[in-house]
Amino acid sequence: MSPAVRRLSVAVAVTAMVAAGLGLAFGGLYGDDEAAVQMLRGFDAVTLVVAGPALLLAIRSDQHGAPLGRLMVASWLAYLGYTFAYHLLGAGMTDLLLLHAVLVTTTLVALGFTLSGVVADPLADRVGHVAVRLPGVVLGLLSVALGAMWAYGCIAYAVDGTVPAGSSLVESDAIVHLGIVLDLTILVPLYATAAVLLWRRLPWGFVLAALALVPGTLHQVSYVVSLLFQSAADVPGAVWMDPFEPVILLLYLVATAALLRRPAARRPG
């Protein structure tokens, strides 16, 4: 990673934590929809405590030559870009709109430059390990489930005007719509492509799977935290737990652990 890209990525991490800190300290910056405010504040808590510091640690690891350092930088950048897309596109006009626009743009630029420096071929030893087929299967199942669920919801809306149900969060129709769009245009194709390439044991399958699973796992944590924020704020209709989430989070955790675990050393001869 060049010094310029490294500095840009550090700037993204710091700016993301500043934006998250502002959102947590001044919830009114996100407008009057209390459900949306608490959802975004839940995201902010995870950004401030986990994602921002994790990005800084990954940058340092890459600087010291860690084998997966650059890929982890890209993964945390992907998380921040996806997360702040909700702030930018799902909350309407807010006092932090300009900051979020600059942050998302800068994050995508940093992600592009970081990915351009990822060399996939040295990851072949990891992809050749039988364990990578487990995350491939999980990603394949998730892509089919997400795609089928939202396709059914979109068809139902076209037939009888029923707006698809979102998650267990209290969400406006605009946020549900944004979630559907992001899932169908980003997550479903990313998960499906990573699953196919992993199954074929191609090095870029490992790269795409990391970009899917590392951010995806933390997104599940953000979802749980946002449920707690809405419940603590007594948002009407809020629940503190999604009964399906433990299973989904476990799938992400197992798949991510299988993907990133260190491959066994090859025996000589």
Automatic annotation (TrEMBL):
Transmembrane segments: 41-59, 71-89, 101-124, 136-159, 174-199, 206-231, 243-260
Keywords: Membrane, Transmembrane, Transmembrane helix
Protein name (record): Uncharacterized protein
Species of origin: Nocardioides seonyuensis
